[in-house]
């Protein structure tokens, strides 16, 4: 054996040079167990470079492994050892090295049947996976199965089953290394974040027998519950079970004392005590909750593997916090260990992962959490259902302002159309309601009050469950887990805030939203969409009266009705936020969202406004636009009909005075939407200043305020330098900015987004994950130009992307002052901001 080849295989000893990047996580983990002097059978690590050599057909020297085959039982296992356990790998192969001679020896020690079963299982797996023979010829079982399998092998290969352990091993290694490079394996691991050329190491380990005399068997043990994260011993032990081979007298034992049956704790207390001791030591040394895989051979334990305990989101939070509290890991590490998105599962009800899922249809997971209710097909039916105390799910083609009442009365929302930023999606996230949109296989039949999905017909009143976290609609009522806003959750976020250097604010429109924002410890409101204050029925009428006014006098009357409502809204928000900054966006109503869409709606409106139907129809036609999202929205309305913004400015300033008299001093932030030219800002600024002067005069009071601009057109980003000269802050509205940068309708993109992502035209839905290359560049250009002109200007993001961990990292990197997202995403954003800061 030459010198070069001796280094390719490393026996895992306490001092061996084993590193994760070359040998993989499993090899490194086994070394740690060995260093702790735990009873790990002899193990060898093959680094990635060797695995690649084997895959490309080069012969490598496996001599050092001969010592393993020379042992009495002479069997080894081969396990994958990727850099990251999440990346998976080819399945473990057991019992490598068995041949006629070993088989005879085993038969004497553990009985003929057991020995036959072990040999048969290896011959079958070798024939199928290594020799690539037809699986149908190797599915035999029963008395003569082994002889038949060996005969079939010989007939097909024109040679006997290989008897040299080294040759068997070389074949197994080659097949595992090639499996890693297969296209399916690549795709699967890339979906889990692995790079295309992720390395694979392999571990060859001496095998112990878990069949035979005395206490024999195999099992796993962990000390934390995988679903709840509570400390609890779980796992199982199977007596007389060796890999897939089950011997005579096999039985399953509970680990701890259990009324349902016998336990290892009672049968073999010393083995149980050892396992507990190993578990405690592994937690401290490996700084992680581990699941230990072990074997017992005639009363002797071997630890053959250890894995991070698989865990739900709730368990992940509890485990990280417990490890930090016990001083096993520092607090920052606990903060880094929890995936921010995982917090979503703790904020809402969740379908118990242990239950069965009867999925009817899938859509876009627009707002997380799960809820069960009876199908209702209209807002009125939802309200009636709520009045009866029956939880209901509002199912609509898409939602309109009228539906907001129905949404309030429902426990979840499902729509056939729409994307991540459609009306239903944005509102549901704000309300914390589970919501699925764009479930395009859904067919709503209003006449028969039913919904069809393929051949399945569901009637109004049938029970369904919306899993807004996954996008699955389920039949019936699966078991649920309660939200877990517990001590561990709060502790983790407290540690996160302590290291974070970017603020997180909430997008909050109503007092209820603001209270949620406070509950989740947002550092202020970064976006109050004032038009959302008008979705309730009485207010909707006032708003429509204002929209329908066709002369200044009528409009003034309508605005006079609205002013006190707005003043009260703002006073409430200021009081709840207790001096924290509150950014109020002036009206940005896409008018079509406030107009009736069908005959019934038009008739109802005519009745409420006391106008002839024909007048209403004419006015709706006059106001209708071909492309309302690019029409008379935002500042355009503010400039065309200045009284609206003047009314809002007055309401804000009067509320500022009222709230400041009662509590903390309020410095309101007024934000102008959909700006594309500096002159728009100047015009609004002049009018708002004039209103401020008038209110100071009328109320004999003083106050200050900050006026800022929402950057949501590409032009505003490009001209941010000019615009900054008139602004105390700029907040990027990445929903509209994405829409306009791509020329992609927020409301209609759902129809083809799936196809686009599937065919990798876009790597992700850009309304969901910020497009850093395109829209992101506009953010950087805008921020840089604004800061060059006005170094002290505040720069922020308040589009839906503000709640997205990758986008938060991007904004942190660009030095943004804060991000603002839906109240229910604030905890996720706080954790993501902290991780970006560490
Ligand atoms: C935006 O466009 O990003 C935004 C926050 O405003 P809206 O979603 O209300 O248009
Ligand atoms: Mg916008």
UniProtKB/TrEMBL annotation:
<feature type="binding site">
    <location>
        <position position="734"/>
    </location>
    <ligand>
        <name>substrate</name>
    </ligand>
</feature>
<keyword id="KW-0808">Transferase</keyword>
<keyword id="KW-0460">Magnesium</keyword>
<feature type="binding site">
    <location>
        <position position="529"/>
    </location>
    <ligand>
        <name>substrate</name>
    </ligand>
</feature>
<feature type="binding site">
    <location>
        <position position="735"/>
    </location>
    <ligand>
        <name>substrate</name>
    </ligand>
</feature>
<keyword id="KW-0479">Metal-binding</keyword>
<dbReference type="Pfam" id="PF00391">
    <property type="entry name" value="PEP-utilizers"/>
</dbReference>
<dbReference type="InterPro" id="IPR010121">
    <property type="entry name" value="Pyruvate_phosphate_dikinase"/>
</dbReference>
<dbReference type="InterPro" id="IPR013815">
    <property type="entry name" value="ATP_grasp_subdomain_1"/>
</dbReference>
<feature type="active site" description="Proton donor">
    <location>
        <position position="798"/>
    </location>
</feature>
<feature type="domain" description="PEP-utilising enzyme C-terminal">
    <location>
        <begin position="489"/>
        <end position="836"/>
    </location>
</feature>
<dbReference type="GO" id="GO:0050242">
    <property type="term" value="F:pyruvate, phosphate dikinase activity"/>
</dbReference>
<dbReference type="GO" id="GO:0016301">
    <property type="term" value="F:kinase activity"/>
</dbReference>
<feature type="active site" description="Tele-phosphohistidine intermediate">
    <location>
        <position position="423"/>
    </location>
</feature>
<keyword id="KW-0670">Pyruvate</keyword>
<feature type="binding site">
    <location>
        <position position="736"/>
    </location>
    <ligand>
        <name>Mg(2+)</name>
    </ligand>
</feature>
<dbReference type="InterPro" id="IPR040442">
    <property type="entry name" value="Pyrv_kinase-like_dom_sf"/>
</dbReference>
<feature type="binding site">
    <location>
        <position position="733"/>
    </location>
    <ligand>
        <name>substrate</name>
    </ligand>
</feature>
<protein>
    <recommendedName>
        <fullName>Pyruvate, phosphate dikinase</fullName>
        <ecNumber>2.7.9.1</ecNumber>
    </recommendedName>
</protein>
<comment type="function">
    <text>Catalyzes the reversible phosphorylation of pyruvate and phosphate.</text>
</comment>
<feature type="domain" description="PEP-utilising enzyme mobile">
    <location>
        <begin position="390"/>
        <end position="471"/>
    </location>
</feature>
<comment type="similarity">
    <text>Belongs to the PEP-utilizing enzyme family.</text>
</comment>
<feature type="binding site">
    <location>
        <position position="712"/>
    </location>
    <ligand>
        <name>Mg(2+)</name>
    </ligand>
</feature>
<dbReference type="GO" id="GO:0005524">
    <property type="term" value="F:ATP binding"/>
</dbReference>
<dbReference type="Pfam" id="PF02896">
    <property type="entry name" value="PEP-utilizers_C"/>
</dbReference>
<dbReference type="InterPro" id="IPR008279">
    <property type="entry name" value="PEP-util_enz_mobile_dom"/>
</dbReference>
<dbReference type="InterPro" id="IPR036637">
    <property type="entry name" value="Phosphohistidine_dom_sf"/>
</dbReference>
<feature type="binding site">
    <location>
        <position position="585"/>
    </location>
    <ligand>
        <name>substrate</name>
    </ligand>
</feature>
<keyword id="KW-0418">Kinase</keyword>
<dbReference type="GO" id="GO:0046872">
    <property type="term" value="F:metal ion binding"/>
</dbReference>
<feature type="binding site">
    <location>
        <position position="712"/>
    </location>
    <ligand>
        <name>substrate</name>
    </ligand>
</feature>
<dbReference type="InterPro" id="IPR000121">
    <property type="entry name" value="PEP_util_C"/>
</dbReference>
<dbReference type="InterPro" id="IPR018274">
    <property type="entry name" value="PEP_util_AS"/>
</dbReference>
<dbReference type="InterPro" id="IPR015813">
    <property type="entry name" value="Pyrv/PenolPyrv_kinase-like_dom"/>
</dbReference>
<feature type="binding site">
    <location>
        <position position="736"/>
    </location>
    <ligand>
        <name>substrate</name>
    </ligand>
</feature>
